[in-house]
Write a structure and sequence with these properties.
single chain; alpha+beta; 5 helices; about 30% strand; globular
Length: about 170
């Protein structure tokens, strides 16, 4: 059953949300993404979230990204059920929905808000590195895969989907 849009409250994430965001991220990746990724890949993927000072792929910490990006949280009944972020250059950095709230409209609400923000900032195109697990969701919402990229992250090899959406 989908939530109606009135049930999903979107707000800016704040540094005090970090522990809840961290747990949501780890729980989601270690359950939802196991359909498409090996244990080695999963462990490499979640490693920076175990240490709040550990850098992400671009060298910034998650705490920095919360304050530097348009970083939003979806809240239902006072619990964060998803989060997403976009940079002012159009790069969609995060889009995660709690493992127990998949396929209920939360990602759709988050994506719509990021697109609204991007249009407000006069960004003409959003781009993202999209997991195999999430690729179908993005395609359903008008995104186009432009290429695959093979990358090594913390010792594990990933095939990333590079996707864009023109606004």
């Amino acid at each position: 059953m989908n939530y109606n849009m009135a049930e999903i409250k979107l707000r800016r994430a704040i540094p005090e949300d970090l522990a809840e965001l961290r747990q949501l991220y780890i729980d989601t990746v270690t359950t939802v993404n196991t359909k498409h990724y090996s244990e080695e890949q999963i462990q490499a993927w979640i490693k920076p979230w175990h240490d709040e000072k550990a850098p992400t792929r671009d060298g910034r910490t998650f705490a920095q990204k919360i304050t530097e990006q348009y970083f939003i949280a979806a809240v239902i009944n006072n619990s964060i059920t998803g989060f997403a972020s976009v940079e002012d250059n159009g790069y969609l950095d995060f889009m995660y929905v709690h493992k127990d709230h998949q396929r209920k409209g939360i990602a759709k609400a988050l994506l719509a808000e990021l697109e609204r923000y991007a249009k407000e900032k006069n960004i003409k195109e959003i781009n993202a590195v999209v997991s195999h697990t999430a690729r179908g969701f993005f395609e359903k919402h008008g995104w186009e895969k432009i290429r695959e990229e093979v990358v090594e992250v913390r010792g594990a090899v990933f095939v990333d989907n590079i996707m864009i959406k023109k606004l």
